[in-house]
Amino acid sequence: MSSKILSISLAGWLFADLVLVLSIIFLPSTSPTTTTTTTTTTTTATTNPDTESQKPGVVPQPIEVFVIISGNSPNQNEVIEALETALKERKESPNIKFGVIQVLAGIRGKDSLESRNSASNRADKVAKLLEEIARNYPTGQSRLKSWLYTLSGNDPKLQYPKMKMRLFPDNE
After folding, report:
1. What is the largest CA-CA distance in the chain?
2. pTM of the model
């Protein structure tokens, strides 16, 4: 008899938990849809990029530049020159420092696993060079934070020797 009472008691608690979970899930959907959409659109349209860029930490909106770095063994000077040239073309402030950079290399020829791997290896070499530059250059002479974090990969939409860099500014 006690096991039957225990089963009924557990069923009651399960039902109560289910009601709580469902109410939490459906509570936001009870508000009018048009108000939510309008608010979201308004918030997105009125977001001030200056306010975002003044907050401390890495800015979530990257600056995207395209650079040409050819060869399988680029050197630091080639990477710095390509990056600086791209940033000058975009008329970016020379005072911006970057804390995170994603490097994506274009593929050679047709899109295949081999060409993607080759592009990823090239991007990885450039990313490592960027980290090395960040560590070795004096703080005032580099656009890169000394603790720079890089990501690398490939972009089949790009063709060799083109590379895409997504640079995330760091607000000090």
Report:
1. 82
2. 0.66
